[in-house]
Amino acid sequence: MTAFRRLIGFNLLTAVVLGIGGWYLGWFIGHQITGKSLDFFGEIDQNDISIFLGYFMGVIAFLLGLGFGVYPWARMRGYPPSLREKETAGIGRYFTLCTDHKVVGIQYLWGIGLFFFVGGLNAMFIRAELLSPTNHIFPPGQYLTLVGMHGTMMMGMMTSGILGPFANYVVPLMIGARRMAFPRIEALTFWLLMAAGTILVTTILFGGFPTGWTGYEPLNDQANGGMDAYIAFFALVGISMTLLGLNLMATIITMRAPGLTWSRLPIFCWGVVSTAILMVLAAPVLVAVLSMAMLDRTGQTSFFIASAGGSPYLYENLFWIFGHPEVYILALPGFGIVLELLPVFSRKPLWGYRLAVAGLMGVTLLSWLVWQHHLFVSGINSDLRPFYMLSTELISIPTGFTFLCGLMTIWRGQLRFTVPMLFCLAWFFNFLIGGLSGVFLSDTPSDVTTHGSFFSMAHFHYTIMGGLVFTFFAAIYYWVPKMFGVELNELLGKIHFWLMFIAFNSTFGPLFAVGFLGQPRRVVSYPSHLQFLNDWVSVSAFVLGFSMLIFLANLVYCLVFARVPAPANPWASLSLEFQLPSPVPVHNFERVPVFTGDPYGYGEAAPPVGVPAPSPAGGMS
Amino acid sequence: MTTAPRDGVIANDGHGRRFVIAFIVLSVIATPLVAIFVGPLFPPGNGSAQAHEQVFDNTWLVAIMTPPAVFVVVFLLYALVSFRSRSAAVVDGPPIRGDARIQAVWMAATGIIVLFLAGFGSYELVQSGSGGGQGPNPAFTPAGASKAMDVQVIAQQWEFTYRYPSYGGVEVPHLVLPANTLIRLHVTSLDAIHSFWAYQLGVKADANPGVDNVAYVQTKGPMTFDIHCAELCGLWHGYMFDTGQVVDASRFASWIKQQRTYFGPVVKYLPKYSTIYLPDPQRRAG
């Protein structure tokens, strides 16, 4: 009976049922509004207004079903404020609105992981199609949908790939806080992202979308109903990103424990701050530009329709004003992870702390000034090209700071090649190749050949997959023993690493050559003399996919079957989160800690960081 | 700047000196080898003055990038071999928190490389216009641009057609260009955004509806070149390719005469030659 009662509360099941109901309600209302006028144009067989209303009402109903309306409703009726919800409710708290940042972090890990695997599966389909230039597994429309879903899923969901699971979980522990600044908003960002991911998958019900992740106009406007799923997905992701960034910024600015000055803040938190700044400022532009695209599709406006006075350049500019900071939203948390983990496994303090911070902040600032390098051949502002060439190449200076600090941290250390350390070291190699290949793309004359070819695709896979996904796995191997209190198998981890590292380079290295030899991106067919290289890449990609299965097997085996309890501090780290018992208590700290230094005092005879305050610190509950 | 006193004991054990020597020796060996043997392999070949400039540009870029690449790889290899922990217990390394001199050298070195790259790239861009699409008012034109021959590239889903305004505005299905001529390509689109990529000529220019995107190319001898659409333009994007030719002036004259005989009669049914063709707004794109 109690089990049954639990099922009908505010939880995921209720939310899904209400969400589907909300979808149909929106769909119905959309047809009531527009049915007649659409019948007037006999050739139009889709109703974009219905689809959008369906998505938005479905999302609202989904969130209400999770219980997001309960607290505002209670406050409106005059109940006293309460900050916490469902923090001690057993396994059920993972399937509902929960305000414990540790629960949200673990929700994010599984949720993001799920969509990461969906996106990866799309990549496998793409490579299967490209095994042959002439024999097609998928019709071209389906192929473009796969390309678009892979790109959009990865670029959309993985923006929160590190900030979602790890920043949410670890940042309050690192800074000695008991919660995030806005716990309900924290939960909202996660569930919005899950709703968005589901919406993107439903694009296949409406014919998919042909535009890739950039959604360029006017192709966007002429595409069929699946495009609405893309727009709704990315707009919701934009809202989620903005809120996530705001929450993390507010947390780090206002909730640091006594003694944790800005110059003692763990470098991962600086990575989170710099990413959060970009999220808060860039993601609203995405929401705006997609709202305009939505109005073009539904309200017959013409922001981007050249023949009716609009401009596709407006879309390209606005999209890349978001889109270039976006790629640093993906890369900067990786910088933070690498610089945070290297001191632990080199047993040395972080080298050049202030330079590392300057590097992160420099990238944050410069990333606003470079977006037109995506438009070097588009035909706008040819006189501004030297400026964008310079600003793009300037980014390599602050990125170089990160490299220098990381490399010098290793120098003279006592290196221990654990699995997280291996992933961090691989970051250097991958990001080196990614960064150097970026020079070809930033240099305008050279970009004429590489632009829009497989070369640029290989470049951003080296920076994003090599920079983000590798550090994502470093973070998993590093923090999962703390998050779940369970050890991961080291041998399987090392097999996963080596297979992934070799297959990754074997996949994307030859793609530079494929691009240089003249294969444009996102093609379903290609010149037959490129078949050998493409087949090589496809087979390597399948091995890369297989390495992910090894990781998954490791995770499931260790978390579900073996369950070897991990020590509280398996890496002998000085960071504050590893000084807590595993699993971390619900409210983290019995007493708010007081910081006496930064967490990098390896080899120094300094007192331990974060000693509990002698008496409860006021105002920090 | 984070500074800690340089530790006299560990600063003199030769690791730093050995690494710097290895880096310098390997860079000095590798950079010319890369420039001489890898550089010429770079695309897009020698099909036009612009393509040739790009190969030259790429050769310089890869040569400049060799020392940083050698630096990181040699550093990693040296550090991973020399500094791996040899004890089972967790032992701490020396607490070095920074070095102002190394930071200053690093900043100066990366700054110089970056400024040189930007200056070099800008110079190359200004020289030849680089073959990229520069919009209706190109800022960087090659010498003799006023006498260039105009050719229009019209992209639509999913093919390219070409108009020769100086030959009666005739529109033909395949691109043929005269050799040793400076061509001014006017790239435009009728529907979605496409990108005209003539690979061996080193030309890429996005085709936007309602925009005249100009790219210059100085052809060389007779050759065949590949044309692809390089911007995702919908369903048959992957099949939007073509082959073009550069031919002698005399063959070009006879070819264009032949084309005018074939396609001349339909010119009067085409829209008048214009740098842009906007579709009927009632029909939206496509």
List descriptors.
heterodimer, A: 621 residues, mainly alpha, Cytochrome C Oxidase, Chain A, 2 domains, 20 helices, globular, disordered C terminus, B: 286 residues, alpha+beta, Immunoglobulin-like, five-stranded mixed beta sheet, 10 strands, 37% helix, elongated
CATH superfamily of the largest domain in chain B: Cupredoxins -  blue copper proteins
How many extended strands of chain A? 2
Poorly predicted residue ranges of chain B:
1-9
Total of DSSP H or I helical runs spanning 4+ residues of chain B: 5
CATH class of the largest domain in chain A reads Mainly Alpha
Write down the CATH class of the largest domain in chain B.
Mainly Beta
Q: State the low-pLDDT regions of chain A, or none.
A: 39-43, 615-621
Summarize it.
With 621 residues, chain A is an all-alpha fold. Chain A is built from 20 helices and two strands. Chain A has a two-stranded antiparallel sheet.
Task: Describe the SSE topology.
The complex is a heterodimer of chains A (621) and B (286).
Chain A: H1 2-7, H2 12-40, H3 48-66, H4 70-76, H5 101-129, H6 140-157, H7 163-174, H8 183-201, H9 219-222, H10 226-254, H11 267-298, H12 312-346, H13 353-366, H14 385-394, H15 396-410, H16 419-442, H17 444-450, H18 454-484, H19 490-516, H20 531-562, E1 593-594, E2 611-612
Antiparallel strand pairs in A: 1-2
Chain B: H1 8-11, H2 15-38, H3 49-82, H4 100-128, E1 149-156, E2 159-164, E3 170-172, E4 176-178, E5 182-189, E6 194-198, E7 203-207, E8 213-218, E9 223-229, E10 241-247, H5 249-263
Parallel strand pairs in B: 1-5, 4-10
Antiparallel strand pairs in B: 1-2, 2-3, 5-8, 6-7, 6-9, 9-10
